[in-house]
Amino acid sequence: MQYKTYLFDFDYTLANSEKGIVMCFEKLLAEDNYPTKTKKEIKHTIGLAMPKAISILTGETDANVLHRLQKQYSVFSDTCMTENTHLYETTVPILKKLKASGCQTGIVSNKTRRRILQTLHKENIADLIDIIIGTENAQKPKPAPEPIWQALAALNADKPHSVYIGDSITDAKTAEAAGVAFAAVLTGETGYDAFVNYPHIKIMQSLQQLC
After folding, report:
1. In contact, 190 and 167? CB cutoff 8 Å
2. HSE-up of residue 40 (Cα within 13 Å, Cβ side)
3. Backbone angles phi, psi at 105, to 5 degrees
4. What is the C-alpha separation between 63 and 184, in angstroms, rounded?
């Protein structure tokens, strides 16, 4: 294979967790008396760093308020996120193919590492992932390049032989800033045309087209 290390975003790339995310935000907005947002408005924030997503949906900018709302969101997430997160049918086959070929795999996400691990353990595929960089162990959130650099350092991998796969412009910007190749997958809320102006090796309908 062309690359030795494959790093993936999580939400809308390896798994569809929009139902759980929408549920949590709907509860958060309702309980704190913020204006209702449509499901489409909420889905457009998936993949952003949580403080930014909360700020967009609530209009809040104060760091203390955003921190409180994020903790409240996490409480809701504990009750409904993992059971409403499902891997795409192409996820396990592509991860198994990469591992069988001797490649390293990782997840670099603005979701928490703890929450990602819950889904991996639920699906019995934790052994297919070598490293997870989530919000609680990332030096900075995406689109900063640091999370990808952290993953590469942990795997002793180099940039020229590494690729990042994601579904959003945040992912494209992260890969570009980190100096690694980027492959876009159209399983999220971002369409083909949005990726054209960013460096990429391919734009895929699904992970099946990765290799």
Report:
1. yes
2. 1
3. -130, 150
4. 32
Q: For the whole model, what pTM was predicted?
A: 0.90
- Distance CA(194)–CA(146), nearest Å, equals 24
Which residue has tokens 């760091």?
63
| Per-residue pLDDT of the chain in tens (211 residues, 90 and over written 9) | 589 999 999 999 999 999 999 999 999 999 999 999 999 999 999 888 889 999 999 999 999 999 999 999 999 988 888 899 999 999 999 999 999 999 999 999 999 999 999 999 999 999 999 999 999 998 899 999 999 999 999 999 999 999 999 999 999 999 999 999 999 999 999 999 999 999 999 999 999 999 8
The DSSP secondary-structure symbol of 83 reads G
- 26 to 23, 29, 37, 40, 101: CA distances (angstroms): 5, 5, 8, 12, 42
Domains of the chain: 5-16+86-209 (3.40.50.1000), 18-83 (1.10.150.240)
For residue 85, the 8-state DSSP code is -
Cα-based torsion angle of the residue sequence 43, 48, 54, 57 in order, rounded to the nearest 10 degrees: -40
Q: Which residue, among 34, 40, 79, has the nearest Cα to 58 in the 3D structure?
A: 34
User: To 10 degrees, what angle do helices 63-80 and 50-58 make?
Assistant: 100
Instruction: Please say whether the beta carbons of 168 and 189 come within 8 A.
Output: yes
What is the token pair recorded at 103? 């490649």
* Cβ neighbours around 41 below 10 Å, total: 13
